[in-house]
Write a structure and sequence with these properties.
about 350 residues, BirA Bifunctional Protein, domain 2, nine-stranded mixed sheet, 10 helices, 12 strands, about 35% helix, about 20% strand, globular
């Protein structure tokens, strides 16, 4: 294989690598001061995620010729998040936990994306979603240093963010209106020909959030968007006071999505129904499918404590702290140099 002569070198400078190490240390001290236990779960897992917007990387473990290993043909996956394993620990009585780990997601490559990246993920028992947002804000300010101190804090509902940035209500706008805005940007929707109106609606809303709304958020601020549509709940509970919305938030800073947090769904039956819905939608879109993670559902059935959880993209946070414009500037070896 011929490779350019300089691709053996890291893409991050020594100074950036030092800053990376320093911020990882700050994060660990942040959780230690709060009595949150650091845990370590496997990167290699037995089941892929069902979410139609997240793509698991398949891994096959080679065995010696003639081996009698019973699962020699079994496929594994590289985890896209430690969430499922950490919830199993929570159900087993771990208490508050956090993890700093590498995760892998397929089809992610660009200025802000690398297939392999670092997450800081944590779960807090009995902590309200508002309080978790405050904790996320405190950690991000700590990691951003001086630039974090100067930033305003903002909390805005999903509805208000769309109204402010696009002049339309995402909960009441007609499907044609959403499609028209997307088409003005030159976008079409992959699900349009095969999915129900609700699926098309969600795809359009997620497209508009990614392309128009999100990039305008967090200018000079740490902006938390909350009250996502119930159809975008993922692994979050629905709001009992407003069942049309999910108890979920995202954090934006300078147009970058940094974190995604939930009041965690504890119902095994409801989670199974959501997984089954995801699998059916993946089939409609011609995406690979995988069996449901029955161990996660068994943990939920055994009893997940009332908790909130969040995943923070460490590399993007480091980009902001370092003033970097490309994720490769804060990684030793991006995927094409790994």
């Amino acid at each position: 294989m011929n490779t350019p002569r300089d691709t053996w070198r890291p893409t991050a400078t020594r100074a950036r690598l030092e800053q990376r190490a320093s911020l990882l240390g700050r994060a660990r001290r942040f959780f230690a001061a709060r009595g949150v236990l650091e845990v370590d779960t496997p990167m290699l897992v037995n089941t892929a995620v069902t979410d139609v917007h997240i793509h698991s990387a398949r891994a096959h473990l080679a065995v010696a010729a003639g081996s009698q290993v019973p699962d020699a043909s079994h496929s594994y996956f590289l985890h896209t998040s430690p969430e499922y394993a950490m919830k199993r620990m929570l159900a087993a009585g771990s208490g508050d936990i956090f993890q700093i780990c590498h995760v892998v997601r397929g089809l992610e490559r660009g200025r802000l994306h690398n297939a392999e990246f670092t997450l800081i993920e944590w779960y807090r028992i009995g902590l309200r979603l508002d309080d978790l947002m405050s904790e996320v804000e405190a950690l991000v300010r700590e990691l951003l240093g001086v630039s974090g101190v100067r930033r305003a804090g903002e909390r805005i509902s999903y509805r208000a963010a769309f109204v402010r940035e696009l002049g339309l209500d995402p909960f009441t706008a007609q499907l044609g209106e959403l499609r028209s805005v997307a088409q003005q940007l030159g976008f079409t929707t992959a699900a349009a020909a095969t999915s129900a109106d609700s699926e098309q609606r969600d795809e359009l809303l997620e497209l508009l959030m990614a392309a128009l709304v999100g990039p305008r958020l967090g200018r000079g601020a740490l902006t938390f968007v909350h009250g996502y549509p119930a159809t975008q709940a993922a692994l979050a509970r629905l709001d009992p006071h407003n069942p049309g919305t999910a108890l979920r938030f995202e954090l934006y800073c300078e147009g970058l999505e940094l974190a995604n947090g939930f009041h965690e769904l504890a119902s095994a039956a409801e989670q199974r129904a959501r997984f089954e819905h995801d699998i059916e939608e993946r089939r409609r879109r011609g995406l690979p499918t995988s069996p449901i993670d029955e161990r996660l559902l068994a943990a939920l059935a055994a009893g997940l404590p009332d908790c909130t959880g969040v995943a923070l993209g460490f590399d993007r946070t480091l980009m902001l702290a370092a003033g970097a414009t490309h994720i490769e500037e804060v990684l030793a070896f991006p995927t094409d140099r790994a």
